[in-house]
């Protein structure tokens, strides 16, 4: 068990590490539970984060696929938008599961973010984003997301072929759980509502 363990109510920062060891995005999470091996945290809509853009100012999606993983990136101040997320982050797993909630609090779907685990620091978990993901829709099964990006990332040297194989295997494992309606896709936390008295999780000063 790790020596870094966080209490409910604390803020930790999930960092997304690049393959060269540099740090990309920073996402602050309010801790709901942590047993020293699996963290459950909350990132509400509108929370300031540190995001990534290409060094020339374009967003990642603005770049053609053949450039997206070859151009240098820089960190930029950003806001978490679209949905609020509840995140289950097991230290050793090659994925984390995100519950997506609409602005009105309604649960939308699950997002399986495939990742390479990089352990914990004093301030939070470190992960390498695996590019390839799954979307699990209640009552409608699951599907891969960003398969073309994952292949482009391998071609660019952003991921190795072996890593992508392991990420795919993890995706198949999680997809099988979703097909059975097994945890974490069994309805657990879909009725989650944050304490209205909680302040939004905040980033440490001076990151960007």
Automatic annotation (TrEMBL):
Residue ranges occupied by any DUF402 domain in the UniProt entry: 61-181
One Pfam family, short name: DUF402
Transmembrane portions of the chain: none
UniProt region (Disordered), positions on chain: 188-208
Highest taxon of source: Bacteria
InterPro entries named in the record: DUF402, FomD-like_sf
Gene3D superfamilies: FomD-like (2.40.380.10)
Name assigned to this protein: DUF402 domain-containing protein
